[in-house]
Amino acid sequence: MKIIVPMAGRGSRLRPQTFITPKPLIHVAGKSILEQLLSDVIQLIDEPVKEIIFIIGPPIIFDNSIINLLNKLAEKFETKPIITRQLKPLGTGDAVLCAKEYMQGKAFVIYPDTLVRFKGKFNSLLDVIIWTKKVKNPKSYGVVKLDSRDQIVDLVEHPQKFVSDLAVIGIYYFKKIELLREQLELALKSQKNKSKEFYINEGILGLIGTGSLVSAAKVSSWLDCGDVQKAITANGKMLSFHLKDNVKLISEKKELINTKIISPCYIGDNTYLKDSIIGPFVSIGNNTKIINSEISNSIVQTNSEITNAKINSSMIGNYCKYNGNSNQINIGDHCELT
Fold first, then answer.
1. Strands 142-146 and 152-157
2. C-alpha count within 13 angstroms, C-beta hemisphere, residue 240
3. Strands 128-134 and 166-174, bridge-based pairing
4. CATH 3.40.50.10420 applies to domain 2-229
5. Burial of 136: CB neighbours in 10 Å, binned 0-12, 13-18, 19+
6. What's 14's DSSP letter?
7. Which phi and psi angles does 313 have, rounded to 5°?
């Protein structure tokens, strides 16, 4: 088994958090979006993962420090990291083809801008599986169309007429991913304009047309982290899940002085919290200092310092300094507001 992770996108909807840090490496509920998603997928797979192929963007954003983080993450999951690049934003189909030399055998393709909770196990003998979530407003999503056997026969983007309420969430399994590669290469070959974006759906529809059975699986929860407010909402829900699962959320390597923590919260290593009220639904990254502040429903990344603040529904990046009383703020890495 291998996992292919297209993550070359710029994450523009999550700015300013993603000016420096790529979106999959933004921390939500104590871990990066990518690490949490990989952890859940690997647990679902329940067999050795030989390789994780990370498809990253240009070096100006995805530099050696990012590559080092990805290598360490793969090492944490006891698997081999492979790095490839998508240098131009030509769509999800093009992104997957950037890993074409590694596309053999059983593989997952996961797009790391969401967090999920899986239902049960999956059957690796099936040709293709697409994970979905039932939604109230299918017009806003790409959805699957099912036949009488509950097999997927079409993929429809933003349907104006009802097709189904099962939205595609960006997690796929292929028993023979070389077949997807062949269909994507055919789709690319048929394009008159080679600079036009093309998508993984084109390859999957090709598989359906050539007889592959494509099944729909469902997740119990799907948390979009695509913009700041969605990431904050996802943070609160993941903290609640972790609390229910008895995950350790508060580090022993912290210093609390006259500070109240209202659960659920994540408190990272080497944090210093004085004369403050933290929570509920707050994540505070490693090496962060908070003094004389009240923080709720917010995410604070690593190595930041907050003083005299009273904030809610806010997001503060890495290496930030903030001294103020705005009710709601959103500042990216290496910012200072005093």
1. antiparallel
2. 12
3. antiparallel
4. no
5. exposed
6. G
7. 50, 50
108 forms beta bridges with 3, 173
pLDDT digits (tens, 9 = 90+) for 184-203: 998 888 876 566 788 899 99
Superfamily name with CATH number, domain 250-337: Hexapeptide repeat proteins (2.160.10.10)
Rounded CA-CA distance 245/39 in Å is 15
Query: Of 53, 38, 47, 175, whose CA–CA distance to 105 is shortest?
Result: 175
pLDDT tens readout for residues 115-174: 999 988 889 999 999 999 999 888 988 999 999 888 999 999 998 888 899 999 999 999
The pTM is what?
0.90
pLDDT category at 67 given cuts 50, 70, 90 is very high
Same fold, 2-229 and 250-337: no
State both tokens at 161: 């007429």
Q: Which residues of 234-260 are buried (b: 16+ CB within 10 A; e: fewer)?
A: bbbbbbebbeeeeeebbeeebeeeebe
Domain ranges of the chain: 2-229, 250-337
